[in-house]
Design a protein that fits this description.
Helix content is about 45%, strand content about 15%. Helix 5 crosses helix 8. Strands 8-9-10-7-11-12-13 form a seven-stranded mixed β-sheet, with helices on both faces. The structure holds guanosine-5'-diphosphate. The site of guanosine-5'-diphosphate has 16 residues, from helix 9.
């Protein structure tokens, strides 16, 4: 595969000011020269310098003025000879250019092939390659910072340190194994145990960052729960209001959840409006409730929207909401009293003053009028305060990738068994085996050891041209 020279459009396939076509592989420069109508061949050009000239289309006729930059291996993104051709952003020109390059000997790239080549040529590790995809996908300041840190290798460096500590433990164990016949003990089992405990702890603390990592990367999920007619949809619109929120149905459900994505102070929020919550025998409505309960169980925080004109008092409404959508321990809840325009003051709302006393911790209450857009700013302030307490946006060494989470969990499980094996004074080779498992799991993350199948699977999720 490394022998071919690949070509793809690096910019979106749409009308734009410019389009960039990129080639990578041993013949990248030679192939481009075949369609290059400039005075001097590109093979003689200085790398990393923009050169202006005409390029020919598949029929050999001039196609466009282009700016061409060549890169010589290994000093390129992929580590191979590469060429970037910038032309006018016409979809016709871009497709003709690619056709001409394919005629001249290039092969259309498959998804993620540039990044995969960069990885295979040691230009970046697997975690960095994945972070580049995240960097391109980042939609908020927090998501960008996370992806940037990972792409620049700081995250890989932390994993590498962990891996080195693990290899140190493994080498101590293997040393003992090698000399076991001679009855020499190089490191005491207590020393093994301490090292293993420390590693286990550190890996578990990384695993624990996944929730916050996902919230920063994919959005802080705020589920809005309230009895039917409390004003959930109205609140969702008010929160999404002056931003360009995408209000969309989550597909595949009968009683849909509605979601709006909003950027606020550098953080991305995903507000989810649950279907009207109420006890019911209707199977379709029950499905809505179970969807709501499911969303609630995964939420970063939960709004309990109380209707100030409902016949039930505030405490009874909250009880009902908590019964229908129980909250996992530790997920913050916010008490919001809606339709404040219908009462003189939310203090009048029966049962409100005693809520925290009787029913346990909940933030708020904030009185709002979702319909009139009153006090939505106050609610935002509270949301932001709780969000930044739950996830620290300046924390950049967080797990955001499910594949990494799996690998860390597997390493943690092996280390757990290793600790048990040491404590039970089991034979050293059993202990060594667990240490090797844990090491292999950690190596999976940065791709120190991988199979072609795993690589294909990871990179096939990238888009073409990346
Ligand atoms: P949902 O069933 O919880 O999604 O509630 P909706 O958002 O559909 O609102 C139910 C009704 O309450 C609608 O007629 C809204 O116009 C009304 N409503 C929502 N918010 C307010 C508010 O702040 N004040 C008043 N007076 N009415 C509201």
């Amino acid at each position: 595969m490394e022998k071919t020279t690949i070509v793809a459009l690096a910019t979106p396939p749409a009308k734009a000011a410019l389009a960039i076509v990129r080639l990578s592989g041993p013949n990248a420069i030679g192939i481009t020269d075949r369609i290059w109508m400039g005075r001097r061949p590109l093979a003689e050009a200085e790398p990393r310098k923009a050169i202006l000239g005409t390029i020919a289309g598949p029929d050999g006729q001039p196609l466009d003025q282009a700016v061409v930059t060549i890169y010589r291996a290994p000093a390129s993104f992929t580590g191979e000879d590469s060429v970037e051709i910038t032309v006018h952003g016409s979809t016709y020109i871009a497709s003709q250019l690619i056709e001409a390059l394919v005629q001249a000997g290039a092969t259309p790239a498959s998804p993620g092939e540039y990044s995969m080549r960069a990885f295979l040529n040691g230009r970046l590790d697997l975690a960095q390659a994945e972070a580049i995809a995240d960097l391109i996908g980042a939609e908020s300041r927090a998501a960008h910072r996370l992806a940037y840190t990972q792409a620049s290798g700081q995250y890989s460096a932390r994993l590498k340190t962990l891996h080195e500590q693990l290899l140190h433990l493994l080498s101590l164990i293997e040393l003992e194994l090698d000399f076991s016949e001679e009855d020499v003990q190089f490191a005491s089992r207590n020393q093994f145990l301490q090292l293993a405990y420390d590693l286990h702890d550190e890996i578990d603390s990384l695993i624990a960052t996944y929730r916050a990592g996902c919230a920063l990367k994919d959005g802080i999920t705020v589920v809005i729960t309230g009895l039917p007619n409390a004003g959930k949809s109205t609140l969702l619109n008010a929160l999404a209001g002056d931003t360009k929120a995408i209000v969309s149905d989550i597909p595949g459900t009968t009683r849909d959840l509605i979601e709006a994505t909003v950027l606020h102070h550098g953080l991305k929020y995903r507000f989810i409006d649950t279907a009207g919550l109420r006890s019911t025998d209707d199977p379709i409505e029950s499905q809505g409730i179970s969807l709501a309960a499911d969303a609630t169980s995964r939420a970063t925080m939960i709004i309990r929207l109380i209707d100030s004109v409902n016949h039930l008092n505030a405490g009874s409404q909250l009880d009902e909401l908590r019964r229908l959508t129980p909250v996992p321990q530790g997920t913050p809840e916010i008490l919001v009293v809606n339709k404040a325009d219908r009462i003189r003051s939310i203090i009048e709302m029966p049962g409100l003053d005693l809520i925290t006393l009787v029913r346990g911790p909940i933030a708020g209450p904030v009185g709002i009028s979702a319909l009139k857009g009153e006090h939505i700013g106050k609610l935002w302030t509270l949301l932001h305060t709780i969000a930044t307490k739950t996830v620290n946006p300046s924390d950049t060494l967080l797990i955001t990738n499910a594949r990494h989470l799996e690998a860390l969990r597997s390493a943690s499980a092996s280390l757990g068994r290793l600790v048990d094996a040491i404590a039970a004074d089991l034979p050293t080779d059993l202990i060594a085996q667990e240490a090797r498992h844990a090491s292999a799991s950690l190596a999976d993350i940065t791709g120190a050891i991988t199979t072609p199948d795993i690589l294909r699977n990871i990179f096939s999720r990238f888009c073409i041209g990346k």
